[in-house]
Write a structure and sequence with these properties.
Elements (H helix, E strand, L loop, with lengths): L7 E5 L3 H12 L3 E5 L10 H4 L3 E2 L1 H5 L4 H20 L10 E2 L3 E5 L4 H14 L7 E4 H7 L9 E5 L3 E3 L1 H14 L3 E3 L6 E3 L2 E3 L4 E3 L2 E4 L13 E11 L9 E4 L5 E6 L3 E5 L13 H14 L7 E12 L6 E5 L2 E5 L5 H17 L7 H4 L9
Parallel strand pairs: 1-2, 1-13, 2-9, 5-15, 13-20
Antiparallel strand pairs: 3-8, 4-8, 5-7, 6-7, 10-11, 11-12, 14-17, 14-18, 15-16, 16-17, 19-20
Helix pairs in contact: 1-7, 1-9, 4-9
The protein binds flavin-adenine dinucleotide.
The site of flavin-adenine dinucleotide (FAD) has 42 residues, from helix 1, helix 2, strand 14, strand 18 and helix 9.
């Protein structure tokens, strides 16, 4: 595919935002150079470790209202984007929209009720969720243990096969002629310029999507540690993510391809990337076991640790200056907010008058100032 070299854009960071932007730009006829510090697959990105839940209702209770609004947008945008990827019908679907189920053990039901009260208070009069009883739960998820008597079905929520998505985006970027450079760290991003280890490269426009790797430009960026377990078993099937309410920790389990389940995730104010702690692995695995004893024979096939890139207010930022655009700070909402962020950045590049979610995302910060 031929591209106009005046429309050449360089992207630093080949995680979630970097890949989505590269793909969108290529589809609009731009040429793209995508630089990644690590490998493209498996990827060191937070996006690779993530659960891939699109959960605006669950997040509404613990986040700013704008996260909910942008999350609703994401549900439709992901449906569209996944349909636009060059995927054959035999391949497993990347996006699932069967909602998510919130349950609590009888002794913890007050946690569930509190969650429901908060949801009603924050989203008065809005649908998208309903209470379910024991019989409903058994019908929705027959493989859960039968003791759950109350729950909430967040009907509108969805989840992605995030690793399948990252691989598919990479394949589509290459198929569309994008040039991808792995193991090529970008040390600094300046207007029109990427500083690599041994050279500086100039471009009409550069986009900084390095997540936590952009700290040289954003000293206030911090990493928030998240730990995960992956288990594999053929004994259990789940149709949708299940959240377990508990007084001390809230955990979720997300079905993944190949009979795998991801259990996550801790949220710890630490930038420690060392392996999962014994306490976290005990909490995650015992919560899993209480969802169904059939998980007892599941094999632990992976443990994961990564850092969520976050600003102090845990809100994302898009900064647009001449020759440089930065998008960062997606925290625990990367998949939930990426559609809003990517559409906002695309609007800046295409000079669209009404960029979506400008008031939530755009931040004034002049990269040309020292
Ligand atoms: C355990 C866990 C669970 C999560 N679950 C969810 C979830 O269910 N739903 C949800 O919406 N979000 C979730 N998230 C959050 C989500 O993963 C992040 O918000 C998202 O990945 C941020 O996207 P990003 O592109 O900004 O950063 P990343 O995905 O981290 O990508 C940044 C990329 O830049 C590269 N890079 C870094 N430095 C450099 C450099 N100097 N030069 C070149 N490249 C560089 C990195 O290697 C990486 O590939 C979760 C995160 C974690 C850790």
């Amino acid at each position: 595919m031929s591209h106009d070299s005046n429309k050449l854009i360089a992207i630093a960071g080949g995680g979630l935002l970097g890949r989505l932007l590269a793909w969108q730009l290529l589809r609009k006829g731009f040429a793209v150079h995508l630089y990644e510090a690590g490998a493209f697959t498996p990827s060191p990105a937070a996006a690779f470790t993530a659960a891939g839940m699109i959960s605006p209702y669950s997040e509404a209770v613990v986040s700013d209202y704008s996260v909910y609004r942008m999350g609703l947008f994401a549900l439709d945008q992901w449906q569209q984007w996944v349909a636009d990827l060059q995927r054959s019908p035999e391949q497993p679907p990347l996006f699932h929209r069967q909602g998510s189920l919130v349950v609590a053990h009888p002794q913890d039901v007050s946690e569930l009720q509190q969650f429901q009260h908060e949801l009603r208070h924050i989203l008065p009069g809005e649908g998208g969720y309903r209470t379910v009883n024991g019989a409903d739960i058994r019908q929705l998820e027959p493989d859960l243990q039968p003791g759950f008597q109350q729950g909430l079905l967040l009907e509108n929520e969805g989840h992605l096969d995030n690793r399948g998505l990252l691989d598919q985006l990479f394949a589509d970027i290459q198929a569309l002629g994008g040039q991808c450079f792995e193991f090529t760290p970008v040390l600094h991003v300046k207007p029109h310029t990427l500083v690599l280890e041994h050279e500086e490269k100039n471009y009409p426009l550069v986009i900084d999507c390095r997540g936590l790797g952009a700290r040289s430009e954003w000293p206030e960026l911090r990493g928030v540690r998240g730990e995960t377990l992956h288990v594999q078993t053929r004994e259990i099937q789940l149709q949708r993510p299940v959240r377990l309410m508990h007084p001390r920790y809230q955990l979720y389990i997300v079905p993944k391809p190949n009979h795998r389940f991801m259990i996550g995730a801790t949220q710890i104010e630490s930038e420690d990337r060392t392996p999962i702690s014994l306490q976290s692995s005990l909490e995650l695995s015992s919560a899993l076991y209480t969802l169904s004893p059939a998980f007892a024979e599941a094999r632990i096939v992976e443990t994961g640790v990564n850092l969520r890139p976050a600003f102090m207010n845990n809100m994302p930022r898009v900064v647009v200056n001449d020759g440089i655009i930065t998008a960062n700070g997606l925290f625990r909402h990367g998949y939930l907010l990426a559609p809003a962020v990517v559409c906002n950045v695309m609007a800046a590049i295409l000079n669209t008058a009404d960029a979506p979610f400008n008031s939530y995302l755009r931040s004034a910060y002049d990269h040309t100032q020292p």
